[in-house]
Design a protein that fits this description.
Serine Threonine Protein Phosphatase 5, Tetratricopeptide repeat; Phage tail protein beta-alpha-beta fold; three-stranded mixed β-sheet; 2 domains; about 60% helix; alpha+beta
Length: about 180
């Protein structure tokens, strides 16, 4: 009888040790996948993050942090799109820019066309002017520059007329500073 009890105790100890090891292994895998998802999110790799967080939820359906991070992916995608659009503004160079007494609308229309040309028709700033009071309508721009990034050209144009721009995912919204 004593031998049987000893054998049962040994078996139980080995079984519980094995279960504890499996639990630790699963917890480590969950943590690793979650950290991989966070790293991907910070780096702007939304699809990789989504895959990692979904893998966490398959292993641990009640993992609230992974579920929350999945809801943040659309915001990450928007941030990535804006970063790419901002990079296009900075990296696309206009060969020659010359405005003499141009209105804001004329200058932005020309800048849009020059940007399309400089980017081989792949990038357009898509300017939208919001000027309900007409403050910007009659302001004139004089500008002569060569080999200038679109972002710098836009800043000089806007400074010249007292306007600011907000870069959105699909358009660049221009409005008067005193609004």
């Amino acid at each position: 009888m004593k031998r049987l009890k000893t054998l049962i105790n040994i078996t139980l100890a080995l079984t519980s040790s094995s279960l504890a090891d499996e639990f630790k292994e699963k917890a480590l895998k969950i943590q690793t996948l979650y950290q991989k998802g966070l790293t991907a999110m910070k780096a702007g790799r939304a699809e990789e993050a989504k895959t990692a967080f979904k893998a966490v939820l398959r292993l641990s359906p009640g993992h609230g942090h992974a579920r929350h991070q999945l809801t943040q992916i659309p915001a990450v995608n928007k941030r990535i799109a804006l970063q790419k659009r901002n990079a296009l503004f900075k990296n696309t160079k206009i060969a020659k820019l010359h405005f003499a007494d141009a209105t804001l609308e004329e200058a932005l229309e020309a800048l849009n066309e020059l940007t399309l040309e400089a980017s081989a028709q792949t990038f357009s700033p898509n300017f939208v002017i919001q000027d309900p009071t007409g403050k910007l309508k009659n302001r004139k721009i004089n500008l002569r520059m060569n080999q200038i990034p679109v972002s710098a050209a836009l800043n000089y144009i806007l400074d010249g007329v007292g306007a600011v721009a907000r870069i959105d995912p699909h358009a660049t919204v221009v409005r008067s500073i005193s609004r």
